[in-house]
Amino acid sequence: MMLEVRGLSVSYGGIQAVKGIDLEVAAGELVCLIGANGAGKTTTLKALSRMLPAKGKILYQGQSIGDLPVFELVRQGIALVPEGRGIFGRLTVEENLLMGAYSRDDGAAIRRDLERSYHLFPRLAERKLQQAGTLSGGEQQMLAIARALMSKPRLLFLDEPSMGLAPLMVEKIFATIRAISDEGVTVLLVEQNAKLALEISHRAYVMESGAICLSGASAALLHDPQVRHAYLGE
Ligand code: ATP
């Protein structure tokens, strides 16, 4: 098991936003977490990547990571692409990518991975010297994903990669997420666009009011009448 979560709870002040959830992601899986606005998806991902204090057990490759600082998670192979992307707007595309490799000291391999990023996202190759803050929304999302990959993650957390993007760009980003998964990176994807998320993932969890209300194979959930009605707008 790559990630095993037991009884994860997160509170903001007195309000419990995540209510003791369990979830797991096997090595090589692409798992999505879907649900309505405010269900607690982003909060869950922030807790798993240690950006928020939480209660419960978080095991990564069998080891508890509940007390590790963020930089140590990155060193151990966990990367987060946050909602809103968090790129460095004043730095160039290439400088942003190199920031993603800050925990590494294998210079030649870093150069190779830089080329791999440009291969994965040719749009970034054309713009390597452009200030990242001037990229379009979709290009910034590509950069955020490419930067996370520069840390050579085994486990990648993605928060709402479709947010604010035009449909064609969303399809492109999702195809790339699938390609990253096919290359062997384990992915946990939080997504508002339930249909696309279910289409590219192996398994899914549905979250409602801070709890997991449904889970299963994505292909099965895509055909589940309850899911179709509540989350696919049918
Ligand atoms: P969305 O898809 O709209 O981003 P979400 O499922 O990711 O929704 P969260 O962002 O995790 O939901 O929010 C879960 C609940 O926690 C919401 O009720 C939200 O208002 C609340 N919440 C989130 N961040 C904070 C905060 N910093 N302080 C107080 N409450 C918060």
UniProtKB/TrEMBL annotation:
Domain spans labelled ABC transporter: 3-234
GO annotation, biological process: L-amino acid transport
Species: Sulfurimicrobium lacus
ATP-binding is among the record's keywords: yes
Residue runs in coiled coils: none
MF term (GO), any: branched-chain amino acid transmembrane transporter activity
InterPro entries for this protein: AAA+_ATPase (IPR003593), ABC_branched_ATPase_LivF/BraG (IPR030660), ABC_transporter-like_ATP-bd (IPR003439), ABC_transporter-like_CS (IPR017871), BCAA_Transport_ATP-bd_LivF (IPR052156), P-loop_NTPase (IPR027417)
Assigned keywords, A-Z: Amino-acid transport, ATP-binding, Cell membrane, Membrane, Nucleotide-binding, Transport
Family affiliation: Belongs to the ABC transporter superfamily.
Gene3D superfamilies: P-loop containing nucleotide triphosphate hydrolases
Designated name of the protein: ABC transporter ATP-binding protein
